[in-house]
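Lab intake sheet, docking and co-folding queue.

SAMPLE TYPE: protein with bound small molecule
LIGAND NAME: adenosine-5'-diphosphate
LIGAND FORMAT: SMILES
REQUESTED OUTPUT: full 3D complex as structure tokens
PRIORITY: normal
SUBMITTED BY: R.K., bench team

The fields below were copied directly from the construct record.
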Amino acid sequence: MQNAIPPLLQLRGISLRFGGVAALANISFDVQEHEVRAIIGPNGAGKSSMLNVINGIYCPQEGEIVFNGEKRTRMSTRMAAAAGFARTFQNIALFQGMTVLENVVAGRNLKFKASLLEQAVWFGRARREEAAQREKAEEVIEFMELERYRKKVVSQLPYGLQKRVELARALAAEPRILLLDEPMAGMNAEEKREMCRFILNSNRRDGTTIILIEHDMSVVMDISDRIVVLDYGRKIADGQPKCVRDNDEVIRAYLGRSERVG
Amino acid sequence: MFYRLSGQFRTSYYEDNRLIGEKLERTVFIATMLVASIAIPLVASPYLLSAVLIPFLIFSLAALGLNILTGFAGQVSFGSAAFMAIGAFASFNLLLRVPAIPSLLAFLLGGMCASAIGVLFGLPSLRIRGFYLAASTLATQFFIVWCLSKVGWFTNYAASGVITVQHVAPLGFALDNHVSKYLFVLVVVTTLTVVASNLMRSNIGRSWMSIRDMDVAAEVIGINPLYAKLTAFAVSAFYCGIAGALYSYAYVSTVEPDGFSLDLSFKILFMIIIGGLGSILGSFIGAAFIVLLPIWLNVFFSAMEHFSGLKAPSGITSNVELIIFGGIIIVFLVVEPHGLARLWQRAKEKLQIWPLSH
Ligand SMILES: Nc1ncnc2c1ncn2[C@@H]1O[C@H](COP(=O)(O)OP(=O)(O)O)[C@@H](O)[C@H]1O
Ligand SMILES: [Mg+2]
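RESULT FIELD (auto-filled):
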């Protein structure tokens, strides 16, 4: 099957160094459209760096990225956004002084076309656009069950809700690929279940391709189609959950840090 | 504001996107505008108009300009007075040198000159931030004032460096008495305040705030920091430029470049710190505070002199003023960085749910 359909995203020989530290060493993997692709590995393995390479925050020293058939050696963050990448961050990166609604509508900023002058006089296109985009944003807010908080300033919300708002902001862009960096970190079981539901819903309903970093193995095994395992910047396994779970090197990498896989 | 709450639902996003959402707040706004435009011109004394209300409105506009840049877009600036100077001197030279130019157009172009130079001096913000950006705006402030006083052409070679502005009649409305000056300033400031509110509820306003709050995330969702920062500099400088033109044509009439010194920039910065960073209303509250404080202090000291016979040492008002500013600013920076506007908002929220507490 994999040979029949070309992958949506391919990473080839990506190497990223910070001074002497090799955060990523010659990593290659691909992502099929509509799949949930997990990246796992111990802390400092290079998972976040991988996402940063994918959407252009970091520029790798070697390697290339093929997205949708186009080859790029580097991609700016804004180009990535325009190409349909959206993401959340390991440490919440919301606009803390803005309301939930403003954050979510900001997620759709690329869909706004009105000029500065039209916005200044709140006329014609500016006014229509604001109402139309607001409506789309409200759909996401409803989907994420954030209606009660829409006019709340983000900094006043608890951590778990902020994580949800960040996912809402990413979803609002109607992304083709969603990069999620530990979206469930620090949540309790109930909150994790809800988050899983939102993520899977978006994947199944809108066909969003998802690249997910997550530490909770039961969650990862449950929701991902394929998993890449990183350790010290190297790829040590890649495949379906059950293959990864039984991989010797993966077990060793995790056991060395007294964590069980599966 | 008290009894809005339940019962008043909005039926469309058009409605909820409205400038002033609450019915009662709209009423209050309309009442304020009626008082400001009809009652005040009828009853206010020339002193109240020329020494309190006109400077209050003009400084509110300058503060709003700085607030757009600093409070909303997060770029610190010590150069607001310099942009006022550009607005003032550009308008002066346009009216002087372009035959038959309508004065409104001259003011508009004056604001646009400030805007263009604002963009130029905003370029460093793409590479530097925080303290270093502040230092570069300080350099801007000194450079512009120095330029205006050293190059004689700008002041039409006035020997003293002081210019007396032309008499103007924007749209046939002669600015030759306090009432007409006041009304003209009121119209301009109201219009630009509405424009600022429109920008803040639009995509550009959200771009500014997102750059302020988290610039990496802003780029990741597709916001262009170059465009966001430079438009903030442009719009901010435009507002300050218009404020400068009003300052010279509707308030003082004789101006010199040194009148737009760093002191004035600081005053405007104090207004937004006290009034509230990132709040349109706060710009007005801060300006009112800073315009009124010296007046109150004067009243206080002369009353004291009158009743106790003690003569306050000369110059004490301005010194006490500085001490009070200093104290208040420290308090606000430490305790309530969102200024008086946030205190007002909290009081309002309390009143909305009064007498029920949550
Ligand atoms: N901006 C950076 N500067 C220097 N080193 C970095 C930077 N980002 C990541 N690293 C290093 O790269 C390695 C991988 O980090 P990261 O990708 O955050 O790991 P993970 O997300 O898997 O925990 C770590 O050794 C980290 O210290
Ligand atoms: Mg990480």
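REVIEWER NOTE: Residues 93-174 of chain A form one domain.
SIGN-OFF: pending second check by T.M.
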